[in-house]
Write a structure and sequence with these properties.
The chain has 145 residues and is mainly alpha-helical. Helices cover 69% and strands 7% of the residues. It contains six helices and two strands, in the order αββααααα. It has a two-stranded antiparallel sheet. A hairpin with a 4-residue loop joins strand 1 (21-25) and strand 2 (30-34). The longest helix has 27 residues, at 118-144. The chain starts with a helix and ends with a helix.
C-alpha cells in the first residue's frame, strides 16, 4: 500500500492505468498492483457478497463472458452481438429480449461488484442503451405488421 501511495502517479504516466490495489500472486509468490477495483475470483466475490450470492455472480459472469478474456471485452462482445442481431429489418423479438435481459443481468453484477472501471462500463452501457432504443422501434414495427 505504501508503494501505491508513493508511485501511483508514476505508474499511471508510464502505463496509462492508475493502480488502486495490491494483491499477492500465488504463481510467482510476489506482490502485484492492479487498476481493477476488485478481484473477480469466486472466493473474492463470496467473501464480499456471501457464499450463495457471490457464487451466483461469479457463475453468471463467467458463463456469459467465458474464460480467457477480460470482463469488459466479453461484455463488449455481447453488446456487439446484440447490435448485429438488430441490424436486420425484421428481428427475432424473443432472441433480442433474451440477449437484452442477459446484458442487463451482467451490467447489474459488474456495476454492483465494481468489477471494472466505472468509465469503461458507462461507455458500454451507453451503447447498450441506444441498442435498446433501436430494439423498441423495431419491435413496434413488427407489432404493427
Amino acid at each position: 500500500m505504501r508503494y501505491l501511495a508513493l508511485n501511483a502517479d508514476e505508474v499511471e504516466r508510464e502505463t496509462g492505468k492508475r493502480p488502486v490495489r495490491a494483491y499477492y500472486c500465488r504463481k510467482c509468490y510476489g506482490w502485484h498492483v492492479t487498476s481493477r477495483p476488485h478481484s473477480f475470483s469466486r472466493r473474492a466475490l463470496q467473501r464480499r457478497f456471501g457464499s450463495d450470492e457471490g457464487g451466483r455472480m461469479y457463475d453468471t459472469v463467467r458463463q456469459a463472458i467465458g474464460s480467457g478474456t477480460s470482463i469488459i471485452r466479453g461484455l463488449g462482445r455481447k453488446v456487439k452481438d446484440l447490435k448485429h442481431t438488430l441490424r436486420y429489418e425484421f428481428i427475432n423479438v424473443d432472441k433480442c429480449l433474451t440477449m437484452i435481459q442477459s446484458l442487463i443481468d451482467l451490467f447489474e453484477i459488474i456495476i454492483k461488484a465494481s468489477l471494472e472501471k466505472k468509465e469503461n462500463v458507462d461507455k458500454l452501457f451507453k451503447k447498450f442503451s441506444s441498442l435498446c432504443n433501436i430494439f423498441i422501434q423495431k419491435k413496434q414495427l413488427v407489432t404493427i405488421a
